[in-house]
Amino acid sequence: MRNIDATTGRITPNLLKLAWPVAISNLANVFYNIADTFFVGQLENSAQAISAVTVSFNVVFLLVAFAIGISTATTTLISQYYGAKDHDNLEKTVHTSLVVICSLAFVVTITGIFTKSWIFALLQTEPEVIPLAEEYFTIIMVGMFFMFTYFVLSSMLRGVGDTKTPMIAGVVSNIINIVLDPFLIYGWLFFPELGVAGAAYATVFSRFVLSVYLYYRVIQKDCPLGVKLSHFKIDFAIVREIFRIGIPSSLSEMSVAFGSMLILGRVNVFGTIATAAHGIGTRFDSLLYLPMAALGQASATMVGQNLGAKNRDRAYRTGIAAMKFIFLSTLGITIVFILFAKPLLSLFTNSIEVVDLGSFYFYYHFSFFCFLGLRVAMLFAFYGAGDSRSAFITTIIALFVLRVPLSYLFSYTGLGIKGIWLGMGLSYLITSAFMIVIFTKKKWMEKAVTLRNEIPAAQ
Predict the structure, then answer these.
(1) pLDDT at 140
(2) What is the predicted pLDDT for the residue at 237?
(3) Does 455 score more than 50 pLDDT?
(4) Is the Cβ–Cβ distance between 66 and 250 less than 8 Å?
(5) Of 187, 257, 360, 428, which residue is least crowded by CB atoms under 10 Å?
């Protein structure tokens, strides 16, 4: 296993060593949805198929927020205990997190399947899109267990500085998904022609392979996580910490998903072409999010390990370094995407109307994306320390005081659908400004469990 101890050595090289495998892992995750969007976009009912995947993705993202919250808590605790050399609590965190995430996956799957019709109706989904969306969504829900276990196993490995194993697994899984997509969607060779449902089946199978491989890796003797089949039990002191950090983190992710759904609901009012343009635009959002998320996740591991070692100054300097890299890398990528907006959009749809309208998503929204990068860097620093409360509060303000109201406000002007995208962009600029004030006060670092000593070293 390739683990990195981020409590020693130069900050920037360690940050980059941890970040590049995370970037590739995130890219692999994004390509699940990009591949689905691309292949269903070649179907005869292109706009409806893309809209179905887009609407389903937003609902899935809302439900996956639970897994992301638990995974965030897992990374935080494991990185801090790893930095503190507290192997007893590290092992307890691993086994408790696995039990919690498996239980949560079951609850979320059942909830999603039984509420899908109500959710799609709430989103004002076009009638011709709903059957396709429900079919795709149901299949994804059945495979939700594998998605949840992937999230938590990856977070465990990142906590001990191993970002390469999730990267390898993610790339292989994504290749499987891309290869299977056309066979299942179009019915190549002896496979049935399943259409939009085929994209969902390919995704589920590839995530199954991914989660099995990661579990195989964490039970190996050379892995410092100490996973043992005989130790799968819940430590309730650890559970309290997981939920203390994980619940606000999940609520933050759910808020992001809910905010996206509110915006999507407004987008849907402008018709199927607008929904398809917005859907493709959000796929590029995911691509642009990659460098900032990778550096943010790497910095969260480094912040956690250094606070575990009680090195506050090094943890703070890690956050600053991440902010600089994320801002600059995002700025560079957005310039390229804006310059080549229409050619890039044309890769995903044969509809001229969707391409023409979607180009304005690039012009208005992506011009401000580098400021979202600053916000992401600070959020991950908060998460690394275990201060998910500050992350949650700032997320609520960013979404429901700024992004959603501004998007709705501008959409009622002559800009129409374009106003939604401009409002989203402006919210990033304003949000980053007030978050910098909170970050520089440094109080978020005091939330580290290894500084508070809420859980004894041995029980």
Answers:
(1) 92
(2) 86
(3) no
(4) yes
(5) 187
Q: What's the alpha-carbon Rg for the chain, to the nearest Å?
A: 21
- Res 151 pLDDT > 70: yes
Q: What pLDDT, on the 0 to 100 scale, is given for residue 451?
A: 62
Most confident option among 221-235, 256-270, 327-341: 327-341
Label residue 456 by pLDDT band (50, 70, 90). Answer: very low
Q: How far, in Å, CA of 175 to CA of 371, rounded?
A: 32
Distance of CA 174 to the CA centre of its chain: 16
Interatomic CA distance for residues 302 and 159, integer angstroms: 9
pLDDT of residue 46: 75
Residues shown for the chain? 459
Measured in degrees and rounded to the nearest 5, phi and psi for residue 255 equal -65, -40
- Report angle CA 148, 68, 18 to the nearest 5 degrees: 100
Contacts 24+ apart (CB under 8 A), 429-432: 429/368, 429/371, 430/402, 431/371, 431/372, 431/375, 431/394, 431/397, 431/398, 431/402, 431/403, 432/371, 432/372, 432/374, 432/375
Q: State residue 120's pLDDT score.
A: 86
* pLDDT over 80 at 232, yes or no: no
Instruction: Report the candidate in 146, 168, 147 with the shortest Cα–Cα distance to residue 157.
Output: 168
Calculated CA dihedral for residues 74, 78, 80, 86, nearest 10 degrees: 140
Pick from 27, 352, 60, 56: nearest CA to 196? 56
DSSP state of 143: T
- Cβ(68)–Cβ(151) below 8 Å: yes
Record the tokens describing residue 35, joined without a space.
């591949």
Dihedral angle of Cα 41, 289, 254, 40, to the nearest 10 degrees: 10
C-alpha to C-alpha distance for 190 and 242, rounded to whole angstroms: 47
Contact assessment for residue 55 and residue 133, using Cβ atoms and an 8 Å cutoff: yes
Mean pLDDT along residues 6-14: 83
In sequence order, which residues have a C-beta less than 8 Å from that of residue 377 and are 6 or more positions away?
A: 292, 295, 296, 299, 319, 322, 323, 326, 327
Enter the DSSP assignment of 229: G
User: What is this structure's pTM?
Assistant: 0.77
CA–CA separation, 426 and 432 (whole Å): 10
The two tokens of residue 53 are 């995947």
**Is pLDDT of 454 > 70?**
no
Is residue 192 within 8 Å of residue 175, measured between CB atoms? no
What DSSP character marks residue 231? G
The reported pLDDT for the residue numbered 437 is: 92
For residues 318, 324, 328 and 331, what is the CA-based torsion angle, rounded to 10 degrees?
100
Beta carbons within 10 angstroms of residue 228's beta carbon: 11
Higher pLDDT, 230 or 34: 34
